[in-house]
User: Which sequence fits this backbone?
């Protein structure tokens, strides 16, 4: 059973920062790249950032230079440091092991203007 538990969301003012974390089952964490996705109200889920097992990272243009994805293999966690937040970053954020059908419950991020 693969478990994904996101945390760290909340309400923050524009320009602020938040750090999201995703705790995963060790069985999936050791074999999969990990990604963060988000879904805003009335919109489709969109990819935000990814990190491979070799710690190579990629970012959506909308967050490049503001967000940083990282993984802590010893703790089976993947994190997303979000800086310079904007109201358009408001969404539910999900972590997702690449190439799998597993999703967590998500964590809400709300950025006020």
Assistant:
């Amino acid at each position: 059973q693969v478990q994904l538990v996101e945390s760290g969301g909340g309400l923050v003012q524009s320009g602020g920062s938040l750090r999201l974390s995703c705790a995963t089952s060790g069985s999936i964490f050791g074999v999969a790249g990990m990604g963060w996705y988000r879904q805003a109200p009335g919109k489709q889920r969109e990819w935000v950032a990814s990190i491979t097992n070799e710690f190579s990272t990629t970012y959506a243009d909308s967050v490049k230079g503001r967000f940083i994805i990282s993984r802590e293999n010893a703790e089976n966690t993947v994190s997303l440091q979000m800086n310079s937040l904007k109201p358009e970053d408001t969404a539910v954020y999900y972590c997702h092991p690449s190439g799998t059908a597993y999703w967590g419950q998500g964590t809400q991020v709300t950025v006020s203007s």
User: Anything to note?
Assistant: The two ends are 40 Å apart (CA to CA). The longest helix spans residues 26-29.
